[in-house]
Design brief:
mainly alpha
Length: 204
């Protein structure tokens, strides 16, 4: 084979090898860039999902906090109004002038009627707590409203006894007992609400 042909073939083969090498290098570089872009995209997606989850948790916590606070305030209004009625009834003595006795009795009756109205509003607030969840908060709200029932009963019984001038110390003692139980259940609700709105809550 002549030297010119050998030189030519060597040049062609060298160029081909260079071309293949350049193509392979470009392909490897492209694959690396593609893989890096894929990793970066996955990382950004994970970060976005974490951010969405954090925002969702924060919004849930705030929504629950508002519902629990509204319920607690509503419950306290009913409780407080019945307590005021009990104070009025407890201030009635047989030796009081008739007009003073009547004024206290009528005030206690008005307060009982106010408590009934407030209690109807409390039902709606309790439903919101049930919807917000979690289930233990619904149970705590139910226990708090359930404890108001004996308090209502004790105050109404006492009022009827005053109406008939047949009240006894037992009426005041029964109201005090129901009063303490209702307050205890309200506190339990508040403690549960505090736990349920801690920063690390999850949708349960």
């Amino acid at each position: 084979m002549d030297a010119g042909l050998v030189g030519l073939l060597g040049g062609v083969i060298g160029a081909a090898v260079d071309a293949v090498g350049a193509t392979a290098s470009a392909w490897i570089t492209g694959r690396k860039a593609e893989k890096q872009a894929e990793i970066q995209s996955e990382t950004q997606l994970r970060q976005a999902l974490l951010q969405i989850d954090a925002e969702r948790t924060r919004a849930l916590r705030e929504s629950r906090k508002s519902a629990y606070l509204a319920f607690a305030e509503g419950c306290h209004l009913v409780y407080g109004t019945l307590s005021e009625a009990g104070i009025k009834l407890g201030g009635i003595a047989a030796s009081d002038p008739p007009e003073e006795r009547e004024e206290r009795r009528l005030t206690a009756r008005r307060l009982c009627n106010e408590a009934r109205t407030l209690n109807r509003q409390l039902d709606r607030l309790q439903h919101i707590v049930f919807m917000e969840g979690p289930s233990e908060m619904g149970r705590a709200a139910q226990a708090a409203t359930g404890a108001l029932v004996p308090l209502f009963g004790a105050v109404i019984d006492w009022l009827h006894a005053v109406d008939n001038e047949s009240e006894t110390p037992q009426h005041g003692a029964e109201q005090d007992r129901a009063h303490g139980e209702a307050y205890g259940k309200l506190l339990e609700f508040l403690y549960a609400a505090s736990d349920a709105t801690l920063p690390d809550i999850r949708d349960r």
